[in-house]
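name: query_chain
kind: protein
chains: 1
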Amino acid sequence: MRHFIEPNVVSRLSGLALDARMPMAGSVSGRHRSLTRGSSLEFSEYRNYVPGDDTRRLDWRAWGRSDRFYIKEFEADTNLRLCLVMDVSGSMAYGSRGSQQEGATKLDYARFLCGTLAYLVAGQGDAVGLSCAGADFRLEIPPRRNAAHLKHILDEMSKLKAEGETGLSEALHAVAEKVSQRALIVIVSDLFTDTDALRKAFQHLRFRRHDVAVFHLLEQNEIEFEFDRPIRFVDLEGAPPMLVDPTTMARQYRNAVQTWLEDVTQIVRNTAVDYHRVSIHEHYAEVLARFLLARKK
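structure:
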């Protein structure tokens, strides 16, 4: 167990399973709707009998009524592939009220979210993978279904550091190409990247038929900009620091942030992404509970 896996939170959320929003293409039987037809309790449709079909699936009552042979089809169930994509750019080292102390940053919050989600999904028998997005750092662990693999993912999460420029869009394009079968892609980031590049990355994921969910992490001061005296701002992704008087630029800053948030909202709507804006001041257990409940069948 890692420090970001809290037993009381796992116990609270263990009754909420993670469901996919669309049919999956798994390799074993599971709880998620499959692309193929099979045997289950949920009836799907009738189709005409074709020579070679299993005669045990013939509906003899339909034959008695119509003198025609029909096959009953049912929804098949399969397993889910969950691919977690964590942003590890420098801006993820920003925390509550500008703190960069360990345990208080966006990256720490992302660790709690992703670690708990990975633990819950592995517990329901599904495969979990991890990708990390940074300009100078790239980690790709393909989804698998076993306890040793989960331990490997949690070990790698505990080692992550937030530094350098963002590489989110490039990482998402790589995930879209390398995860060949349908999967649930969960992205945890502050989305501080070019919106056009982000739009293309989301479109690529959706074109590959992946179910995409985004946790958009923000600190309250990043939106409200409540500074009342001259302050020195440091760019965590490498640009030179700036000494500014917030009172002269507060209105322009808030307008720019509002425009950016509206652009992000439009992008996720157009690409059918499951979007969740999250304040890192909110407990991550509440965020996960809303996410899991919203996906209940």
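note: The chain has nine helices and ten strands.
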